[in-house]
Amino acid sequence: MQRREWLRSSLFAVLAHLSGGKSGGTAAPIGYTAISSLAGGLFPSGVSEVLKQIDAAVQQAIEQGETAGAVVHILHKDRSLYIKAFGDRLQQPQRQPMTMDTLFDLASLTKPVATASAVMHLVEAGQLRVSDTVARYWPEFAAEGKEKVTLEHLLLHTAGLIADNPLADYAAGAKQAWERIARLKLLNPPGERFRYSDVGYLVLGRVVELVSGQSLEVFCRKQLWEPLGMKDTDYKLTEDQKRRSAGTGRRQERMLQGEVHDPRAALLGGIAGHAGLFSTAQDLARFCRMLLQGGELDGKRLFRESTVRQWTTPRKVTVGQSPSGAVTTGLRTYGWDVDTPYSAPRGDLFPRDRSFGHTGFTGTSLWLDPATQTAVILLTNRLHPDEKGNVTPLRRQVGTLAAQAVGYGQAKKKP
């Protein structure tokens, strides 16, 4: 009975969305909300009110021009706690309303969802060890003192590599780009400090290809996304998927929709270890469910529980120095952020030492909390249409409200 009522209410909401999507005017929240029960029962007192505050936060971000639209999907104990689409996926050259099946350019979410996942798959298969040096699989990379850089260094962003090498290094094609990356010098010794690096994940993607004998795209599709039933996750999109994609910025005065925004990934043909992946909230929900369930989804095991633990265990990294000269530390996992300056999606309530997630430059983010079996998926198109949007405050707001909805912070409330 409960599921029948849910389907009926969802259908009415979808019909309302379809009719509302034809109107013009200021971007407003549209789409449908499907809020399930918690643990098979009714919502605890106040949860609905907390979740309604997410609506207000997203609406405000749209009204202030920080993003054209958004999709929010919150999972709790393997059920959808909150699902909603807001605003527009495209405003120029013509308006297209946001829908739940909109694909987003994930930008740096590519790092954990594609590249780190592929590395851990090869680790589980015995084809890689995180302690292996990159040079073991790519001898040319040892140039300029990089012979001791390991896969673990790259996964944790502690290799000592530059954040991004010049775009000119990619101008003549992939072959020359890899040659120039192999000749890069280190800014500091491996393991000494955390420096977020796109180059490091480009290198990891290259290692996956060298070891597997397949492109990163093909390997991830066959070993990860297809087994997980992630039907709208890929680097290269069909024409239908492009039409369903959220807009980002411009390239040579052409609005980007269904084409990678990151310039280095674009020059590498759209497939790279640091950026280039597209996906939907529904697909990312399947990925998050798999992680929260220890590597299994719908009775199919993709990773052993021990592999997921190895993958998501926080590890201390040196972030920098305080004004007094004291060393400041943070936490990262193999591919995920835990506690660094990039942790806005954690909000104010999720644990600082064991929840994890990641952000993407285009306005995307994930945050997962194994303790409460919660995942917060926030996908926005903040770069559309003028590349001026900022959703960092929204990430923090949504993360805090989601944590509050699943029970964090309740003990701090005054009677």
TrEMBL record:
Listed InterPro entries: Beta-lactam-related (IPR001466), Beta-lactam/transpept-like (IPR012338), Diverse_Enzym_Activities (IPR050789)
Keyword terms, alphabetized: Hydrolase
Domain of life of the organism encoding this protein: Bacteria
The Beta-lactamase-related domain, residue ranges: 54-392
A GO molecular-function annotation: hydrolase activity
The protein, known as: Beta-lactamase family protein
Species annotation: Thermogemmata fonticola
